[in-house]
């Protein structure tokens, strides 16, 4: 049977951590599964942006690097070889149509048919919020960074981190034991991170530069940062080897609108089974909205079995639903 004729039980759109776990759980339910990911490799933003970041909201791990989590999810996806998913990377879904009870997904490389669809595209396409000052763009990835691919690049260097949220605090704590010196620049005296992380920050060696804004950047043997105190004309000069900017990201879920799916505040509106108002189309992870929704990897992992079990019951009502996660142990 050719690919255009093959009909999958489930197509998961999005190959980030939540999409990968969804594919694994679909294998547990012995469902024929396809994963379509627009990036060249699985892992989503975690692989692309945070391979060295310590993730602390995954059950069973006090902390695990993003890259290690993706590697573990890769391994988990093939734990049931007969039901390992088919994976299509570097391929973007451009349209979702339904004929009778079969969905036809058109991509940049062809078409796939599926009996159900699980959308797990996270925040969609993303771009970092950059410094709101003029600076030499050639400094990016040389002395000014928006992503960290390898923490070893900052070993024995003086590093300034700009930002006041969880990501900035996490990087400050991560680099504290690697860099020679770490500064954290924030426009407020209060930080917006997890209480436990903020407590560690105050107890550590990271020097807090608050409340300051970066008013200028000058290159030289070192990077010279002109810091302006908020609501004041006072300035401080800070010489560093590298500046890591963590002002967050802008996300665009334009694909959801393009596919004509039901939205609520630009996010997929789903019910208690994670199903949209279109029968057979489900959404999980950061791309969905429902009362009490929490945007954490851990929450997305929990939503996956809810969606997959509902799909399995509808596709194969004669099968008995497993009562617990050890149902398939031998």
UniProtKB/TrEMBL annotation:
Domain FAD/NAD(P)-binding: 8-294
Catalytically driven reaction(s): 2 reduced [2Fe-2S]-[ferredoxin] + NADP(+) + H(+) = 2 oxidized [2Fe-2S]-[ferredoxin] + NADPH
Source taxon at top rank: Bacteria
Keywords recorded for this protein, A-Z: FAD, Flavoprotein, NADP, Oxidoreductase
EC main group: oxidoreductase
Binding, FAD: 37, 45, 50, 93, 126, 286, 326
Molecular functions (GO terms): ferredoxin-NADP+ reductase activity; flavin adenine dinucleotide binding; NADP binding
Cofactor note: Binds 1 FAD per subunit.
Enzyme Commission number, as recorded: 1.18.1.2
Cofactor(s) listed in the protein's UniProt record: FAD
Matching InterPro entries: FAD/NAD-bd_sf (IPR036188), FAD/NAD-binding_dom (IPR023753), Fd--NADP_Rdtase_type_2 (IPR022890), Ferredoxin-NADP_redctase_2 (IPR050097)
Family note: Belongs to the ferredoxin--NADP reductase type 2 family.
Self-association state and partner proteins as the record states: Homodimer.
Protein's recorded name: Ferredoxin--NADP reductase
């Amino acid at each position: 049977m050719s690919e255009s004729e093959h009909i999958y039980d489930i197509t998961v759109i999005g190959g980030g951590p939540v999409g990968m776990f969804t594919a694994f759980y679909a294998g547990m339910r012995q469902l024929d599964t396809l994963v379509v990911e627009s990036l060249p490799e699985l892992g989503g933003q975690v692989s692309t942006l945070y391979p060295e970041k310590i993730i602390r909201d995954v059950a069973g791990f006090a902390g695990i690097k993003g890259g290690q989590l993706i590697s573990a999810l890769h391994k988990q996806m093939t734990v049931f070889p007969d039901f390992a998913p088919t994976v299509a990377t570097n391929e973007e879904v451009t349209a979702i149509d339904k004929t009778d009870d079969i969905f036809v997904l058109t991509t940049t490389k062809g078409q796939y048919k599926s009996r159900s669809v699980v959308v797990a595209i996270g925040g969609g396409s993303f771009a970092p919020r950059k410094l709101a000052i003029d600076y030499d763009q050639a400094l990016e990835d040389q002395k000014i960074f928006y992503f960290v691919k390898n923490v070893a690049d900052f070993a024995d260097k003086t590093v300034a981190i700009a930002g006041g949220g969880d990501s900035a605090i996490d990087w400050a704590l991560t680099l504290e034991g690697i860099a020679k010196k770490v500064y954290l620049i924030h426009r407020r005296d209060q930080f917006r991170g997890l209480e436990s992380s903020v407590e560690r920050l105050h107890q550590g060696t990271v020097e807090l530069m608050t409340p300051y804004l970066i008013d200028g950047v000058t290159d030289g043997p070192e990077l010279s940062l002109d810091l302006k105190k908020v609501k004041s004309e006072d300035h401080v000069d800070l010489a560093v080897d590298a500046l890591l900017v963590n002002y967050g990201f802008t996300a665009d879920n334009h694909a959801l609108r393009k596919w004509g799916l039901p939205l609520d505040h630009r996010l997929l509106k789903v019910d208690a089974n994670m199903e949209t108002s279109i029968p057979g189309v489900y959404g999980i992870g950061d791309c969905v909205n429902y009362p009490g929704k929490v945007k954490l990897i851990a929450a997305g992992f929990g939503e996956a079995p809810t969606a997959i079990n509902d799909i399995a019951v509808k596709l194969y009502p004669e099968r008995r639903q497993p009562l617990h996660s050890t149902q398939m142990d031998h």
